[in-house]
């Protein structure tokens, strides 16, 4: 009996010990998460105190330019976007993720706008690994578009990059519809991201006898999207996607960066087209400019949901809209005088969200999937590049 009693005491002791250890472990883990959240709040508060402190516009542009060149040469690893707990969102995204291709592409487009031709060629050649960013996904078309401003002699990997991008485009092409899937796992879905990432590249690429085919592919993507992802009962704003089998729109209506992707693809495709083909897109540009202007927030930016004024300002959407409006004015599609206040307010908004080191923060995190949007607002090199491109456009 004594032996049985002793064994029972040992079991109870072990259970208590396991409980105490588990309680301590869970408590420590909770403290880590709480502590990390506190650190993030402190960091955000410090950032808020230092944002936008530039003597003038030239100093602001110089700081952004220097930062963009630095981050093009050494791309920072982006952090994940899982939502909760906050510490988990800070795990770094795999360096081979397609997101890095359009981050690099965005930076290069911004750098191109604020440098001479000779400077740009020199900067592009600071990296000899861009080929590694091109894979099976079509995201790398934006990078290929940025590299179209140099020749194959000036950047030897350009031809291989173009070939890989074209391979990914053909792999995602629905030959019956003549339009591109964003991901082959959703064969009947069309995403708005594709408009900005791919269409300008298709029109600009010089492939001789295939050029007309690529232009037609880009126009089909744009015109079908306008037909199926916009609703005449609302403002001229797009849904995130559509399903052509059911003709049903999908995802958020007026998603900020998504509308920015559409604006980017629309205006860049327009400027790359021959004059006789541009007319198909003119009315779309005018209507989109009017809708964007209508929903500009008091701080000069645009929200993560464009038509919800109370939504948090997204600097990526703001930079893309600013570029769209300025280029539409330059191409004389809209009257510049009617948009001067809008342009000035947007630039001030972007400056007020720029850290002293040149980083433009408060960008909505990467969208995980259709309908699954980020609640984190952080830093993306792409936004820095698009801000430079917009601000330096004259």
Regions with little confidence, pLDDT below 50 for 5+ residues: 83-91
What's the CATH first level of the largest domain? Answer: Mainly Alpha
What is the approximate shape?
globular
Query: What is the overall number of helices?
Result: 13
Report helical residue fraction: 55-70%
Q: What is the number of strand segments?
A: 7
Q: Average pLDDT across residues?
A: 88
Which percent band covers the strand fraction? 5-15%
| CATH architectural name of the largest domain | Alpha/alpha barrel
Total domains: 2
Largest sheet: 3 strands, antiparallel
State the secondary-structure class.
mainly alpha
Compressed to H and E, one letter per element, the order equals HHHHHHEEEHHEEHHHHEEH
How far apart are the termini?
Answer: 94 Å
- What integer value in Å does the Rg equal? 24 Å
CATH topology of the largest domain: Glycosyltransferase
Reading side by side through the largest sheet, how are the strands ordered?
3-4-5
């Amino acid at each position: 009996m004594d032996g049985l009693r002793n064994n029972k005491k040992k079991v109870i002791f072990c259970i208590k010990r396991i409980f105490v250890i588990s309680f301590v472990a869970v408590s420590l883990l909770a403290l880590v998460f709480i502590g990390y959240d506190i650190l993030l709040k402190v960091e955000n508060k410090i950032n808020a105190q230092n944002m936008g402190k530039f003597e003038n516009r030239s100093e602001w542009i110089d700081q952004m330019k220097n930062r963009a060149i630095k981050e093009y040469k050494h791309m920072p690893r982006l952090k994940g976007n899982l939502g909760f707990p906050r510490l988990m969102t800070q795990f770094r995204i795999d360096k081979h993720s397609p997101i890095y291709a359009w981050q690099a592409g965005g930076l290069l487009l911004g750098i191109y706008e604020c440098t001479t031709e000779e400077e740009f060629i020199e900067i592009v050649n600071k990296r000899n690994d861009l080929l590694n960013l091109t894979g099976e996904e079509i995201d790398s078309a934006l990078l290929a578009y940025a590299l179209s401003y140099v020749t194959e002699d000036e950047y030897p990997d350009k031809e291989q990059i173009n070939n890989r991008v074209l391979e990914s485009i053909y792999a995602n092409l629905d030959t019956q519809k003549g339009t591109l899937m964003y991901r082959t796992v959703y064969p009947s879905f069309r995403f708005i991201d594709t408009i900005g990432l791919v269409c300008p590249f298709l029109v600009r690429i010089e492939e001789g006898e295939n050029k007309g085919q690529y232009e037609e592919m880009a126009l089909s993507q744009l015109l079908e999207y306008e037909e199926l992802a916009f609703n005449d009962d609302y403002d001229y704003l797009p849904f995130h996607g559509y399903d052509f089998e059911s003709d049903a729109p999908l995802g958020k209506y007026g998603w900020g960066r998504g509308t920015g992707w559409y604006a980017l693809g629309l205006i860049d495709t327009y400027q790359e087209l021959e004059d006789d083909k541009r007319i198909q897109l003119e009315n779309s540009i005018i209507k989109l400019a009017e809708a964007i202007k209508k929903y500009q927030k008091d701080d000069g930016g645009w929200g993560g949901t464009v038509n919800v004024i109370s939504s948090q300002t997204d600097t990526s959407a703001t930079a893309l809209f600013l570029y769209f409006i300025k280029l539409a004015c330059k191409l004389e599609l809209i009257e510049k005088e009617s948009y001067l206040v809008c342009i000035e307010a947007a630039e001030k908004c972007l400056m007020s969200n720029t850290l002293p080191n040149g980083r433009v923060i408060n960008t909505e995190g990467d969208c995980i999937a259709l309908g699954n949007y980020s609640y984190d607002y952080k830093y993306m090199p792409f936004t820095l590049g698009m801000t430079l491109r917009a601000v330096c456009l004259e």
